[in-house]
TrEMBL record:
This protein's name: Imidazole glycerol phosphate synthase subunit HisH
Naturally occurring in which organism (per UniProt): Promicromonospora alba
The reaction(s) this protein catalyses: L-glutamine + H2O = L-glutamate + NH4(+); 5-[(5-phospho-1-deoxy-D-ribulos-1-ylimino)methylamino]-1-(5-phospho-beta-D-ribosyl)imidazole-4-carboxamide + L-glutamine = D-erythro-1-(imidazol-4-yl)glycerol 3-phosphate + 5-amino-1-(5-phospho-beta-D-ribosyl)imidazole-4-carboxamide + L-glutamate + H(+)
PROSITE patterns per record: GATASE_TYPE_1
Keyword Lyase in record: yes
Domain Glutamine amidotransferase: from-to ranges: 6-210
Amino acid sequence: MGARVVVLDYGFGNVRSAVRALERVGADVTLTADRTTAQEADGLVVPGVGAFAACMAGLKAVRGHEVVGRRLAGNRPVLGICVGMQVMFDAGVEHGERAEGIGEWPGVVERLEAPVVPHMGWSPVEAPEGSTLFEGIADERFYFVHSYAVQTFTKGYDENAVGIFSPPKVTWAEHGGRFVAAVEDGPLAATQFHPEKSGDAGSQLLQNWVRTLA
């Protein structure tokens, strides 16, 4: 049997295609908002589409933010996708309104500064050395659909900090300017693009993540 993965069903996300994509790479997938099932799975996927504030409200309604926090405290893997990545940051600002995120990473999700928004389509990424998610696919393109993103990432770059944890591995992409395309930070990983819509490269990324759950 493959790794047990829960796709969190909280009303915001391309859930069916995420389930199918994970099943194709060998995961045993359950679509549910049940906290116990989500807590006990080998891996938890938090999808998300639409507005940041609405996604956070949906997450809180099923206490998904608590599940994420407990899983990460226990070093249990979580993968955020699209707005499911954005909510892992401190806050999102849309139409002048600020909504608080889960706050696992410092940073604010803001509107892309580009001639054409949303950023929609296939784009290359700039993956760091030693990336697990992008092993074998660092030169591929991935499918993005978004108007907002985190454009600076500061966690883990304090030269004076003392700790046992390595800094997060941050992958970047460009649309108007640089923005965070993916982050790998211990048990928490996330992508701004949609791996479930990114063809063979997206399948390989999901397979790379599922492999870490064994």
